[in-house]
């Protein structure tokens, strides 16, 4: 090994010893740096674990809320479906009532149309109905004016068909 410039050969044993000691110091410092990096990594890892635990706690809380809300939503859905079914049932009943009233009204219209057909002579083969007083209702307008719910009557003293007034 050649002696570096500026060094004397006389103390070459002490130089090698200094080199060895310097190398040992460098190796121990590198080992300390490596250990320090490991400690820093472990601290960062521990910090990450704490953050992960907090986030897991938040996640569990949120999942609990989702479960509670989904149960509430199911209850509300069932209540809505029940109310909707009730409304549909009522609509069906009202529709049925409406159809019955329309049928009843159409029956009365047909009866009235037949009556007017008899009165106006539209049905020549059928006899013309005559009022209880014995007059054709179309020929006596005065009777139509006096006619009440009980029917047309000639005598004012009668209330209803054939009953004397009290």
From TrEMBL:
Recorded hits in InterPro entries, A to Z, give: SPATA24
| Composition skew (Basic residues), residue ranges | 153-166
Where are the coiled-coil regions? 19-72
Region called Disordered, residue ranges: 130-166
One Pfam annotation reads SPATA24
Domain of life, source organism: Eukaryota
Tell me the protein's name.
Spermatogenesis associated 24
Q: Name one GO molecular function term.
A: DNA binding
GO terms for cellular component:
cytoplasm; nucleus
Asked if the keyword Coiled coil belongs to this entry, the reply reads yes
Keywords of the record, alphabetical order, are: Coiled coil
